[in-house]
Amino acid sequence: MASALAISLLSLLLLRPSNASTPTSVNGKRRPTTCNFIGSVGGVVDCSTRVGREEKVAMELAVEDFCTSTGYGLALKLRDLSGKTAGTVSAVFDLIKHQQVQAVVGTLTTQEAAVVAEMDETNSRVPLISLDTASITPSVMPVDMLPVIHMGHGISVEMRCIAAIVGFFQWQKVIAIFEDKFSYGRDLGIITLLSETLRGVGAEMEHYLAFPSMSSLLDPKTTIQEELKRLRDKQGRVFIVVQSSSQFTALLFEQAMQMELMVKGNVWITTNFITSLLDSFHSSVITSMEGVLGFRTYFLDTSASFKNFKARFRRKFLSEYHEEEENIEPSVFALRAYDAVWAIAKAIERLPENSKSKILLPTILSSNFRGLSTEIRFMNYKLVHAPAFQIVNVVGKSYREMGYWSPKFGFSRTMFKDDGAERQRNSSTSAEDVLGSVYWPGGKTSVPVRLMETTLSGRQKPLRIGVPVRSNFTQYVKVIQDENGTYFSGFSLDVFDAVTKLLPYQLPYEWIPFNGTYDKLVEAVNQKALDAAVGDMQITSDWCKLTEFSQPYVESGLVIVVPVNSNESQEPWMFMRPFTWGLWSLMAAMSVFTGVVVWFIEHRSNEDFRGPRLQQIGKVLWFSFTTLYLGQRDSLTTNLSRFVLAPWLFLILVVGSTYTASLASMMSSFKT
Q1: What is the pTM of this model?
Q2: CA distances from 537 to 264, 407, 656 (A)
Q3: For residue 458, what pLDDT band results from cuts at 50, 70 and 90?
């Protein structure tokens, strides 16, 4: 009996696959299983954050579910960054080189994958699946770069959603706030992309606040307070929190409430990463965010598979992280991690035995199944299915779901099922139906379009517009001050009035007479003593360094003609100035030429030309005229007469009249 039992046990050991292993968690604990292990997958998470904890739990559940449903299992090897995001590359490289994993899942960027590829001398080409929701992927993957498959949508889709909201309310200026999670300015491309997208709806980014990673700040509270103080002087009152961790978000809105930036007239918009974690925030944090308008990635939460996952996720998450027992709802980041592990597991299952990892990449890219987050189908290393965002509005200690937005359909109120997947209803609904009843900060339900500075009492403060009193062009600016008051008029002021009437909101302002120079006026605007200035001011390079100018509304520059006192008309050689020295020399040469010709004709002709000198010259001229027009002479005399007559007519008709006009003009300009 004992020998039979030993043979049975030996048979079981022989039947167990040689590559069987036990999946481990972050703390190194092992759990028994009866699955036939067919490979290993690595995971890089940051368990110091809520997102990292959700991803860890979701990956472990994915391995368990795959083993239960197929009988095959994966060895899950996790690396915890513990708040050190700079160690992502080394963690991935360690999993590939030392742990021999077949694929890696984590929040890995394309640039980090390039660094890993440079470190990998064996060129293993291990597939990497990035869970980063704000991934920006190149259109062409370099040959020497590790392949990165993105489970998250591109950041450009989020920027388009922000622009759609800003464009609907016709806001002109916005202020962006973001936390650089890498702490060395690599995320500034997001700000550039947002600025370009806003221009498409007629808005612009007035200012942006770039905070380093919260873990690198010695005193985060003081840093946030100092930066928020700068926002009080800005005209824009639309604040967009583009990127922020959950810890930073909680502290940001807490300080914003204390500094009265969460009152009437202010707008706060949160993007997908922050809005998707609303369920994990403490109730006190939600209270400080009251009035926030946000959007998050939509996923189907009514299916049986999601409800089953949600129940098991809550139990497992609560058992590992007791301090977060208040909010244990899974977010879209947990669903993406779950779907990523399933995509790898299903691809490894389809591979032939003893196949290399290079074959695994196209197998993963050919995945086609319905996941918890969305449809898992890839094209160009990205998901084919375009995301839809759910618009939510924070009210009280919770939030309300308002509608949806997608790049294809825009805003809509509902979603409907189509072939087992959720699709956005292409109905006649518009942004007005979705965004028409937003609960804004301060309890105001109407759209806060008057985005000007408010006092602590809530009364709107008018703009102080400086007007130069010492203007030389009264047609443009005219200020009259007497005992009855101050009166303003002029074309420049009329233009300003007409522009303000075309604005979609009321812009209160008051004229402030300014008695200083134009340089002082520009300096007053630069130093915030005046909010703006209106007048007959030119746009110069020096003034542009101090303040901004509007588009010019006068085509040419302003000039003035005044009389000038001059003593040049008393000069003795004044009569020589109408002509240049070259022209005087030419006329002298022509006179000499005329004299020579007259002398030659005089000696060649008969006695008719004898007599006094003046009489002789007159006879020669008359002779030339009669020779040309009245009579016939010898050919030589005729040609000489022509040479005399042409210069003489030029001197008398052209030069004489020109000289007279030029001299008269010069004399009149020199008069007082």
Answers
A1: 0.65
A2: 36, 45, 46
A3: very low
